[in-house]
Amino acid sequence: MFSSGATSFGGTSTGFSGFSSVNSTNNLGLGNTDNPMKDIEVQSPPEDTVSAVRFSPKADFLIASSWANDVRCWEVQENGQTIPKAQKTHAGPILDCAWHDDGSKVFTASVDKQCKVWDLNANQDMQVAQHDGPVKTCHWVQAPNYSCLMTGSWDKTLKFWDLRQSNPILTLQLPERCYCADVVYPMAIVGTAQRGIICYQLENQPSEYKRIESPLKYQNRCVSIFKDSKKNGQPVGFALGSVEGRVAIHFIQPQNPKDNFTFKCHRSNGTTANIQDIYAVNNIAFHPVHFCLLSTVGSDGKFSFWDKDARTKLKTSEQLNLPITSCCFNSKGNIFAYASGYDWSKGHEYYNPQVKPKILLRSCADELKPRKGK
């Protein structure tokens, strides 16, 4: 069970070996089982759907925020087993969570219009940000000359916070509600309602760099920045996922117009000829070592691994009996975490309270390798 005792959250990433698995059959929802890939189940998962899973940048600690109003933290051991460490709550569902760059603190964004910082070593949390509407995203910005928390809200603002001050150091107006965001210094990308995409530069002081016409025709669902996989490892573009089972790979300054492309995913052949079942792309995560590799997860209850440079799908999972709502890699890139839970995409009549959310861990080093000869 979760404890309230203090824990040291420093150190380095561990290895990952000695897998055991749990597999249970449940003929409900999308597939026939809640763990068809026989991956390791995280102990004591949230009671409601997970909104975000994030590995620490410094060690193999995992956090997950949820619609059960809580954020939880686990230690992931070398054998893949998990130890629940602690948890904190908001007054409403938590829509996002993020790590401080030193791995000692966690930020949470909630429907209760607040963001909090959770000091893991002291196991204390406090409010550090406030909006006029639910807070959809939170990201820590670590620049050479400043550090701050970036929050995006349904109140159509993007705010930057010095944790030592009660008021934001900068507020930027958005054209619409913030639906998704990502930060890889010195770049930030924000996706809004009405298919808006805005690129920000974060050097010296955050400012708008350019607005981008969405390469996708339907609502923004998730966005993830990617780094240059051939040269200096600087952020050069983003992958955008939509509700329509499609992902766009988009360079901010493409060397060739053909560098930008879209591809279909999280679709399946329907019962009628020439008709596809189309599912939302709920999350995209890039590999921390091989920048050309990424994962997508969807409302179809599947995850897929891709090589964007080779424009190749490396693997698609078997189908879970619930949608997959979030995913992430650990800092070494050898553990893939993904969360299953109902996302209400099929309406209330498909909600079954007997089918509980899960967080699963997969050893992925052998499955995620760049294609040769690109």
Describe this structure in words.
- InterPro entries: WD40/YVTN_repeat-like_dom_sf, WD40_PAC1, WD40_repeat_CS, WD40_repeat_dom_sf, WD40_rpt.
- Belongs to the WD repeat rae1 family.
- It holds the Pfam family WD40.
- This protein is an all-beta fold and 374 residues long.
- 0% of the residues lie in helices and 47% in strands.
- It contains no helices and 30 strands.
- The protein has strands at 40-41, 50-55, 61-66, 70-76, 82-89, 94-99, 105-110, 114-119, 124-130, 135-142, 147-153, 157-161, 170-173, 178-184, 187-192, 196-201, 207-213, 220-227, 235-242, 246-251, 261-264, 267-269, 276-278, 281-286, 293-298, 303-307, 312-316, 324-329, 335-340, 358-363.
- The protein has a four-stranded antiparallel beta sheet with strand order 1-30-29-28, with no helix packed on it. A four-stranded antiparallel beta sheet has the order 2-3-4-5, with no helix packed on it.
How would you briefly describe this protein structure?
The chain has 374 residues and is mostly beta strands. The chain is 0% helix and 47% strand.
